[in-house]
Design a protein that fits this description.
Elements: E1 7-12, H1 20-33, E2 37-41, H2 44-50, E3 53-56, H3 83-95, E4 100-105, H4 107-119, E5 124-128, H5 144-165, E6 168-173, H6 180-188, E7 193-195, H7 203-215, E8 221-226, H8 234-244, E9 250-254, H9 266-284, E10 290-295, E11 298-303, H10 304-307, H11 316-325
Helix pairs in contact: 1-9, 2-3, 5-6
The protein binds 6-O-phosphono-beta-D-fructofuranose.
The site of 6-O-phosphono-beta-D-fructofuranose (F6P) has 11 residues, from loops.
């Protein structure tokens, strides 16, 4: 990069995650502090294509650090995956004189970025914004901590009613390709079993464990299932449990999008603030096409193409621990 960045565009893309607003605030304020102009691009790549772009001032990000969602709105743009869509998006950036981008999003956002930068050259830094925690190059993603805490609060409530009725509950949490929400919320809630895409689910093992629990008169069972588990979500697991144990009082609960909303936790607000600040500083220091993350509490940069390759492996010891702690 031989040219000093002057005008940056910021967008949120893909599924929203609590803490995106805190990240936008940090980006806008760090940019303005460093005498850069900042432009908000609404509705992610789709807004970039349509030129839905406005200049942001420091007051535009007042009172948003505590709010879920994203003031810039978000979208999953199909048009951006086409050559024509990408060309239109680039033309809009040129029209507005935007000479660098800050992208907040997940897997799909960075895959889109990799494709875009094969054809168009513009400095860009990304922030991992997804509740799924399914990116390499960072220990945590923006929104994960809040989503897990939302799931924990809900599962604790489910356990109360399950206990009152001696019921078995299959609780489905989000995570299309990643089981981190299931794993963390399941461990934190003392789940009897946790099913995640990263581990092959042998449904007979799951059923046998329920059988063993029944024999030793365990009256409450909570099974936490990631929506993307290789066997299937709560519905599939529930119907097999019913077939094998018709005498059990079994229910399902799909937590769904409540996990994506709400006020970000303190951890997410701090993560978002650190990453937002680091992203702008990175652009000023001529870094490009990297995602800024936090590894062992230190800022770390990972090329977009590596961030989306695979997510960090689920620690084996955590998986082994579930069996021990649920006995
Ligand atoms: O953003 C990640 C995620 O919440 C996944 O866990 C989930 O599978 C997906 O988004 C749902 O997407 P949508 O809101 O578009 O249905």
């Amino acid at each position: 990069m031989d040219k000093q960045v002057k005008k940056i565009g910021v967008l949120t893309s893909g599924g929203d995650s609590p803490g995106m607003n805190a990240a936008i605030r940090a980006i806008v304020r760090t940019a303005l502090y460093n005498k850069l102009e900042v432009y908000g691009i609404r509705r992610g790549y789709q807004g970039m294509i349509e030129g839905d772009i406005y200049q942001m001032q420091t007051t535009d990000v007042s009172n948003i650090i505590q709010r879920g969602g994203t003031i810039l709105k978000t979208a999953r743009s199909k048009e951006f995956t086409t050559d024509n869509g990408m060309r239109k998006a680039y033309e809009q950036l040129q029209k507005h004189g935007i000479d660098a981008l800050v992208l907040i999003g997940g897997d799909g956002t960075f895959r889109g970025a990799v494709q875009f930068f094969e054809n168009y050259t513009i400095p860009a830094v990304g922030l991992p914004g997804t509740i799924d925690k399914d990116l390499a190059g960072t220990d945590y993603t923006i929104g994960f901590d809040t989503a897990v805490n939302t799931a924990v609060e809900a599962i604790d409530k489910i356990r109360d009613t399950a206990e009152a009725h001696d019921r078995l509950f299959v609780v489905e949490v989000m995570g299309r390709d990643a089981g981190y929400i299931a794993l963390h919320s399941g461990i934190a809630c003392g789940a009897e079993d946790i099913l995640i895409p990263e581990q092959v689910t042998d449904i007979n093992d799951v059923l046998n464990r329920i059988d063993m629990d029944e024999r030793r008169k365990k009256t409450v069972h909570i099974l936490v299932v990631a929506e993307g588990d290789d066997f299937g979500g709560a519905k599939e697991v529930f119907s097999l449990i019913q077939q094998r144990f018709p005498m059990l009082d079994t229910r399902t609960c799909v937590l769904g999008h409540i996990q994506r909303g709400g006020s970000p936790t303190c951890a997410d607000r701090i993560l978002s603030s650190r990453l937002g600040h680091a992203a702008v500083m990175a652009l000023l220091n001529n870094k490009t096409q990297v995602m800024v993350g936090i590894i062992n509490n230190e800022i770390a940069f990972t090329p977009f193409k590596d961030a989306v390759k695979e997510h960090t492996l689920v620690a084996r010891d955590m998986l082994d621990m579930i069996r021990v702690l649920s006995t």
